[in-house]
Structure formats: structure tokens, C-alpha cells
Amino acid sequence: MKKILGLLCLVGGLCVCCSSIAQEKKTLLSVEEYAQAIAEDTTAVLVDVRKPEEFKEGHIAGALLLNVLDTESFKESIRLLDKEKTYYVYCRSGRRSQTAVSKMKEIGLTVYELSGGFQSWTEAGKNVEK
Predict the structure, then answer these.
(1) What does 56-124 look like in DSSP terms, one character per residue?
(2) Residue 1 has pLDDT above 80, yes or no
(3) Catalytic site residue from 15, 17, 18, 91
(4) Strand 44-48, strand 110-114: pairing
(5) N or C: which end of the chain has fewer CB within 10 A?
(6) Would you state the pLDDT for residue 2?
(7) CA distance 104 to 34
(8) Residue 12 to residues 7, 21, 56: CA-CA distances in angstroms?
(9) Quick check: 8 pLDDT over 50?
(10) Distance between CA atoms of 47 and 28, rounded to whole angstroms?
């Protein structure tokens, strides 16, 4: 009986672990998933985490600029964000957005990331604002 109970606990633990991993992976969205999500999500807030000069060269329409490389300003800015909203983050290629998403999740925000960043957005022919 103890062996069966132990086996059930092990299987249950693995299921919880796999579920957490699946949920974590689901926060990284393809261009099409990202575009659909921001179009349909009434709580969506777009967050561009690149440098101001990159933002000026072009960004997704309606995006809020929060430069993740300006560490102190970024930390202060995300603390002021509404936890009832859903944040859709992107950078140029995806590296900086990983850092931003991690910091945003740490404080309890719901965050999704654009796979491949702004480069993948423009390569897919999506609209850009300057």
C-alpha cells in the first residue's frame, strides 16, 4: 500500500511539474498568436522594452516604451503597472524581453512575450508605427 501511495505521489508531482512547464512555455507567443491576442484581449497593454532610439525608428502601434536596460527606471515603472491588465512585451529579437518578462512576473503581472521580437513582427509584414 505504501508503494502504491508513493507511486501516486510521484506521478502527481510529475503532472504538476509538467503542467507548470507547459504554462511557462505558453507565455511565448508566435507573431500570429501575439497579433490575435492583442487584438482580442480587452486588458492588453503593449510594452516595448527597447531603447528610445529603437522605439522612434518603429514600434507596434499603441506600445508603451519601458527601456529594460534603464534598470532603475524599469523597476520603478513596472511597480506602477495595473495588475488587472495583461502585458504583451517585445524587444528587438527576444533577449531583452526575456529579462523584462522575468522581472514583471516576479511582481505578479500577467505577461506574454513575442517570439523573435520586433524583427519577427516586421518580417511577417505586420504594421509598424513611427
Answers:
(1) HH-B-TTPEE--TTSHHHHHHHHHTS-TTSEEEEE-SSSHHHHHHHHHHHHTT-EEEEETTHHHHHHHT
(2) no
(3) 91
(4) unpaired
(5) N
(6) 58
(7) 18
(8) 9, 14, 50
(9) no
(10) 14
